[in-house]
Amino acid sequence: MEADRSRFAATAETTFGEKMPRTILRLPTAGETYYSGGNTITIKLSAGDTAGAFGCLELTVPPGGGSLPHRHRHEEEFLFVTEGELTFSGDIAPRRGGPETAVYIPRHALHGFENRTTQPARLLSWFFPGGFEGYFREMGVSDPNALLSFEEYRARAPRIDERFGMVPEGDPDFEPAVREAVCVGREVGERFDIEGDPVTLLIVSSATGNSFCAFLREATPGAGIPPHLHFREDETFFVMEGELTAMLPDGQWAALPAGSLLHLPKGAPHAWFNRSERSARFLVVATPGGFDGLFRNIHHRTGAETIVERAARHGVAFLPG
Fold it and tell me: Using CB atoms within 10 A of its CB, is residue 315 exposed (0-12), middle (13-18) or buried (19+)?
């Protein structure tokens, strides 16, 4: 154990020197929380956490709540439903999405969502690039006992919308979407077998102009990935079910129960395992895109040497054991 910690620390120091980017672990209730438009928004990652690449929010949407159709001038967005059901609209064909529904929204695409059920819904929202999380710092309030009135909300919205490039439906001053929106459920994603555990590719890199890709991974008890690092992409894990145990760049082990989010910058050595007695299920967002090509290269492949060699072609280096 101590040897692993020393080796990780040495690898991190060699890779980054004194400019080691931050690895960030947010446990289920961690983050800045704001209340806006009836929704509860928790900032899990901000632009400052990811060198500007993206931000990540967790939203709780009550029955009857949601987001009116709108467009973003500056960002593309990735939505992932974690609990409940939402109905999506706009350039996304009107459809209902339950847990593990994934939605890619390119810049300028019209989109909105509504909770038409009697139970709260929860979803994660990534923005590329980061910075839009600031919208909720200005539009929302941090005290649930000091919510804005409808009149206060309407008076504040135009100024803040303009500053953050948010365009409401019906505004004539908009550009066509740069790509097509994508909405998929876990049942239609491309599936791969990686050493006996399934990976479901939800959003492919080609659909996002290589901005990111997103996939679901299952890990049976005892499964995992030994110490390694990525030279090309950041990874963000969100644990849906079960629990993972991760070794972080400083060599410390951390438990990731369901609802935890872990951000690993490129070049940061890490490992993860399922040390529990039940299967774990988690989402991974890799930024920029391209990492999904690895799954096609190792699908149904076995043997450590084969996987290590093919992983190297995709910028993944396993550390000597």
Answer: middle
Q: DSSP letter for 74, please.
A: S
Q: How many CB atoms lie within 10 A of CB 266?
A: 19
Whole-number mean pLDDT of the chain?
Answer: 90
8 Å CB contact between 31 and 259: no
Reading the block at residue 262, the tokens are: 């872990």
Residue 21 DSSP one-character state = P
Helices (H), the chain: 2-16, 133-139, 150-163, 292-298, 304-312
pTM of the predicted model as reported, rounded to 2 decimal places: 0.92
Q: How far is CA 207 from CA 3, 107, 182, in A?
A: 42, 13, 8
DSSP string, 90-117: ETSPSEEE-TT-EEEE-TT--EEEE--S
Find the helix or strand (DSSP H, E) in which 194 lies.
strand 190-194
Neighbours of 250 (CB within 10 A): 14
Q: Which residues, in sequence order, are bridge partners of residue 201?
A: 190, 215
Cα–Cα distance, 11 to 17 (Å, whole number): 10
Nearest-CA neighbor of 34 among 65, 50, 66, 58? 58
Q: Which amino acid is at 310?
A: R
**Sign of the alpha-carbon torsion through 68, 73, 209, 15:** negative
Distance between CA atoms of residues 27 and 39, nearest Å: 20
Closest CA to 96 of 77, 107, 81: 81
In the β-sheet with 253-257, what is the strand arrangement from edge to edge? 253-257, 243-247, 270-273, 224-230, 316-318
Q: What is the pLDDT of residue 7?
A: 53
Q: Give per-residue pLDDT as tens, 89-131.
A: 999 876 899 999 999 999 999 999 999 999 999 999 999 999 9
Cα-flanking dihedrals φ and ψ of residue 221, to 5°?
A: -55, 130
Residue 76 · residue 165 · CB < 8 Å: no
